[in-house]
Design goal:
- This protein is an alpha/beta fold and 520 residues long.
- Helices cover 40% and strands 14% of the residues.
- The longest helix is centred in the middle third of the chain and has 28 residues.
- The protein is globular and about 75 Å long.
Length: 520
């Protein structure tokens, strides 16, 4: 299909291209679709007759991309379909309606530039800048950053150690829109520009990835054997009053299975214990046989803490216990899930729908990333569930850990793209921070990522079992991204934006897109 043909119905074409772009994300990884989807978006935006049309075309692309990309979130409503199933269609509609703005503004800014070469230089920078904004506006939701399309292999994501997933997004976008350089004006010079824009990022990604993987091969550290426990309890039974004791016992029984060597650490998933172990001494004593004699148990559990006003509120916690049942350390989830663990602006919600929102707890957030030092283990950090999706926010930078425990539960989302995309985000954080990430999930996917993003000890989605894995040796030198964080990709975005602004003046170009018509 010619790019010129998609301008006949720009809004519909934009929506369709955005929806198609989802096929490049995990677990599909159909990367050639990016040439059509993002290449088509760029064509539509650069040939929009005015700024308003460019904004509209970007918005409808974003609507399709985020509505389909986040549609799996609605599966959580089907766990209790009788009460909440009617809300299911609202999830893609709300996702597309709000997050579409994060594609609309890059489109608007791109169209404001005067020439296609300037737009090609700046468009990826605008897109990545708004990806970064998406990571913190209204508490943030940086899910499905475009760089995650490269998570099909550890080889292709090592560049994240230099500039994070945002750098991967930047390079991916240049490769995606490269064909438009030639299609906009089919000259030998433009063909050369297309090949350079495509091959330079690809060559850099592959060569840097090969060098880093050969420099840091995965070497098991025979001092630390870790057991992941995944009971694969169906979400509809996880909080059933009649199943709580059996669920708890299943964790204990799996933890007590024989191991090839003494275990240093056993890791259970998010809220693996439905009982508040800090307060419930009976159940804490009950799990003592599951804790290695000279090891540690990391267990997700509910807790209860007073807030600043003295009100007792729940916390989503991880406890570290020794063989005697003593609580060595505690981590409380800091980045809470909107509409899952708290309701934003709860007091402003109309009274007519407050009964629905009242079933969502008002969790108390923790104090941010922490590092724990325990006898017989490397320095530990923690991130619970979706905290792992936030680049440069998961470890304590002053006292960085060697290992990050990621306790999660993707059982809410069934057999959908969600758990695989969550796993891809974990893979990227391991490479960005240069740490081993131990991921224990209730229903999968569990596994241990080496500091170069290689997955070991995997337990597949919805499969019950254990995995005993030796930890990997730590990296001798962390990457630039761990030290400088988002300053690197944001600085690149600024430089590219400046280049896009001055390029028309340097080339003496005419007022718009090399005299190519913008008409629909």
């Amino acid at each position: 299909m010619s790019f010129k043909k998609i301008t006949a119905f720009p809004k519909s074409a934009s929506f369709l291209l955005g929806a198609l772009a989802v096929l490049a994300l995990p677990p599909f990884w159909l990367l050639p679709i990016l040439w059509l989807s993002f290449g088509g978006l760029f064509w539509l935006v650069s040939h929009a007759p005015n700024l308003r049309q460019a904004f509209s075309r970007g918005y409808w692309f974003g609507f399709g991309f985020f509505a389909f990309g986040f549609s799996w979130i609605g599966n959580a409503l089907l766990i209790d379909a009788r009460s909440f199933g009617w809300l299911y269609p609202l999830v893609p509609l709300a996702s597309g309606a709000f997050f579409g703005l994060f594609a609309a503004f890059p489109a608007l800014l791109t169209r404001s530039l005067k020439t296609i070469p300037a737009q090609i230089v700046a468009f990826p920078a605008f897109w990545v800048f708004f990806e970064w904004l998406r990571s913190f506006i209204l508490t943030g939701f940086p899910w499905n950053l475009l760089g995650s399309v490269l998570t099909f292999s550890p080889l292709t994501i090592q560049t994240a150690a230099l500039g994070g997933t945002y750098l991967l997004s930047l390079l991916t976008l240049y490769m995606a829109i490269a064909p438009v350089i030639w299609l906009s004006q089919r000259t030998p010079a433009r063909l050369a520009g297309t090949l350079l824009t495509l091959l330079l990022p690809a060559s850099f990604i592959l060569l840097y990835g090969y060098n880093r993987l050969t420099t840091y091969p995965p070497e098991p550290d025979k001092r630390y054997l870790v057991r992941l426990v995944q009971p694969a309890i169906p979400q509809r039974l996880k909080w059933s009053r009649t199943a709580l004791e059996n669920n708890f016992q299943k964790y204990i029984e799996l933890s007590r299975l024989p191991a090839e060597a003494p275990l240093s650490l056993i890791v259970w998933g998010e809220t693996a214990s439905p009982f508040p172990l800090e307060l419930d001494n009976r159940h804490r004593q009950q799990l003592l046989p599951a804790i290695p004699e000279n090891g540690t148990l990391a267990v997700g559990t509910l807790g209860y803490k007073p807030d600043n006003e003295g009100k007792i509120r729940p916390v989503n916690a991880m406890l570290l216990l020794n063989h005697q049942g003593e609580i060595l350390n505690e981590y409380n989830k800091t980045h809470l899930v909107p509409f899952g663990e708290y309701i934003p602006f709860r007091s402003l919600i109309p009274r007519s729908i407050r009964p629905i929102t009242n079933v969502i707890s008002d969790f108390l957030p923790g104090n941010g990333p922490e590092t724990f030092r325990l006898p017989g283990l490397p320095a530990l950090g923690a991130a619970i569930c979706y905290e792992i999706i936030f680049p440069s926010q998961i470890i304590n930078k002053q006292t960085p850990p060697e290992i990050l425990l990621n306790l999660t539960n993707d059982g809410w989302y069934g057999k959908s793209a969600g758990p695989y995309q969550h796993l891809a985000a974990t893979m990227l954080r391991a490479v960005e921070e240069g740490v081993t990430i131990i991921r224990a999930a209730n229903s999968g996917i569990s596994g241990i990522f080496t500091p170069t993003g290689i997955l070991t000890g995997k337990i597949p989605l919805h499969q019950s079992g254990i995995s005993d894995t030796w930890l990997s040796a730590p990296l001798s030198i962390p990457g630039f991204y761990r030290r400088y964080g988002n300053k690197i990709p944001l600085s690149l975005c600024l430089i590219l934006t400046i280049c896009g602004l001055i390029l028309p003046q340097m080339t003496g170009s005419k007022s718009k897109t090399d005299n190519i018509s913008r008409q629909n």
